[in-house]
Amino acid sequence: MLRVVLAQPRGFCAGVERAIEIVERALKKYGPPIYVRHEIVHNRHVVEDLRTRGAIFVDELDEIPPGAMTIFSAHGVAKRVEEVARERGLPVIDATCPLVAKVHAEGRRYAGQGREIVLVGHAGHAEVEGTIGQIPGTVHLVQTVEDVATLNPGTPDRLSYITQTTLSVDDTRGIIAALKARFPAIVGPDVRDICYATQNRQQAVRDLARAVDLILVVGSRNSSNSNRLREIGEELGKPAYLIDDASALQPAWFAGIASVGLTAGASAPEMLVQGVIDGLRRFGEVEVSTLDGVAEDVRFRFPAELADA
Q1: Would you kindly state where each structural domain of the chain is located, as residue ranges?
Q2: Which of 17, 106, 116, 127 is catalytic?
């Protein structure tokens, strides 16, 4: 008997649910094709499903025909992307997660105070590129505590920091402490502004690691928050694997394993989690339970043009 313990919460967060439903509502209201700049969320299955229904995912706006309905992904975009869309006359629906938009607003507010911005995040991530491009001023990207030591701002007494939303309080604590130690005058948002979903899912994995022998994280390789969930499992001494779906399961992983913790990144649908449970049944009898955890009830409003779609 293999005991399978489900993390709570797991899978879709409110920002991801909203972004996916924006594409679905747009397809229903305007009809296909709907063009989406970048993957709407970082999950291969979600993107493929929307593609079959008429969504076309592009890297840049110049791939979109004139006048075609355009959606910006949940990760947000730079100001220049918004300007190019206006110049080309593209009708745009913005699916940026409201928590990402809040970080953009904070960055602009700090820049308006004449401050240089330190952005704690991952280089190359779509959200980070969008955030840097939303702030009219100097932005320094730091990824590690070590980066803080080599930071060379022009106005060290006029600094502020903001963070990528898919990092948790725990992920950023050390970097923010290093920033405050080196630049005592630095200011930043309240810790409550950290994305609730990231923090909750990471805490659920910490709780899970205390209760199981091995951890499976359902999510795509390009999902920052899914990768972090796997890393946390490993940091807590448990074998941990990031899998797209049940097809990635390896029988050898479960030799001598009595219990498996199962979670999913914020952009992974619940059907994939249930598919993994079915996949585990190929190896023998399975008993499923759910860990006690936070019940999320966050909901975000839809853009006005889709509010009644």
Answers
A1: 2-12+196-290, 14-98, 99-193
A2: 127
